[in-house]
Design brief:
CATH topology of the largest domain: Spore Coat Polysaccharide Biosynthesis Protein SpsA, Chain A
CATH superfamily of the largest domain: Spore Coat Polysaccharide Biosynthesis Protein SpsA, Chain A
Helix content: 40-55%
Strand content: 15-25%
Shape: globular
């Protein structure tokens, strides 16, 4: 393996919210411990949301500092740990993440040698263990966001969506103001300079803090050679088990972050959000989109698009039926 170029001595605070993650934490924390990066420049912080398994003991066995998270949910845990972090840069991770190789932090550190860079994020990669649904998610996000936000959901399409401000051998800085606001989540190893506090009103939001950085004109670097595994779902059935309750919550609660994001989006994106439930189950339109995308991008993940879209679409309508029936029985609640 060729030697890695020198990177600045960035002190990283690795931030991991967790609840009952004793099985997955050793894989993530082990990938951090294996980094060819000075161990005294790596701080591991875990926000434990009241785990009833061995999450706390496992985290401590890898040298992590465990902080109780009384709110339990991941997003508030992230904000809490950012306020306690001692590093120069915080890296937000989920328990289903894995640093793909030993040079992840070495590569992620490089953009921060430029004081203009406020934050950075890595590329998502697949492993042989990842199935078609996970590969689709890693390429495009979930089918709803993929349809609504299009080229703003994935670095694979950034070059045809945004102007490049600056490009080096190690990273790219896009002018995210030259197109739709990108859909970048904190939880996929988003790295941000410290000190940093999540803005008021974003405690439960994983995307809005990044949108606010972009709106403020801060530069965010994409680091394609810093690669992250995101083992997000076990298959389509697992994906529907996770997203079904999210669909129901969005239809029942106007305070869900998605609604605020849509209100600040353009008219075209709002229209696509309301069109998606019908598009998704049509099959014909997703099939046409997949054919066009496959020819344009040469990415095999497009082959899954009609099937993943249809599965999510029917799950949406299933949850919509449940919500409608509940409202008929009990009357309206905080619905959008």
């Amino acid at each position: 393996m060729e030697p890695e170029a020198h990177s600045p001595g960035v002190r990283f605070s690795m931030i991991v919210p967790a609840r009952n993650e004793a099985t997955r934490l050793p894989i993530l924390l082990g990938s951090i411990r294996r980094q060819r990066y000075p161990s005294d420049l790596i701080e591991m912080l875990v926000a434990d949301g009241g785990s009833t398994d061995d999450t706390v003991a496992v985290a401590q066995s890898y040298g992590a500092t465990v902080v109780p998270n009384p709110i339990r949910r991941a997003e508030p845990g992230v904000g809490m740990l950012m306020e306690r972090a001692n590093g120069d840069v915080a890296v937000v991770l989920a328990a289903d993440n894995v640093l793909h190789d030993e040079f992840f932090l070495e590569r992620l550190a490089r953009p921060f040698a430029d004081p203009r860079v406020a934050a950075a994020f890595p590329a998502l990669v697949n492993t042989p263990a990842d199935g078609a649904t996970t590969r689709y998610f890693n390429a495009f996000s979930d089918p709803f966001n993929h349809f609504v936000y299009g080229g703003a959901t994935s670095p694979a399409s950034y070059r045809r969506t945004y102007r490049v401000k600056r490009c080096t051998d190690d990273y790219v800085v896009y002018d995210f103001g030259s197109g739709p606001t990108p859909l970048i989540a904190l939880a996929q190893a988003f790295a941000i300079r410290l000190p940093y506090r999540k803005p008021a009103g974003t405690d439960e939001d994983d995307v809005a803090p990044v949108e606010m950085l972009i709106a403020a004109g801060r530069e965010i670097a994409f680091v394609p050679r810093a690669t992250l595994e995101h083992h997000t779902v076990g298959g389509i059935a697992d994906a529907l088990r996770k997203f079904g309750p999210r669909f129901r919550a969005r239809m029942s609660d106007a305070g869900q972050p998605m609604w605020g994001r849509l209100r600040s989006s353009g008219r075209a994106q709002r229209s696509r959000a309301y069109l998606w439930p019908f598009y998704s189950i049509s099959f014909v339109f997703p099939l046409a989109a997949a054919a066009y995308g496959l020819l344009r991008d040469r990415r095999s993940e497009w082959l899954s698009h009609p099937f993943v879209s249809a599965a999510f679409g029917f799950e949406f309508w299933k949850q919509a039926t449940i919500v409608a029936w509940q409202r008929l029985r009990t009357g309206p609640t905080r619905a959008h």
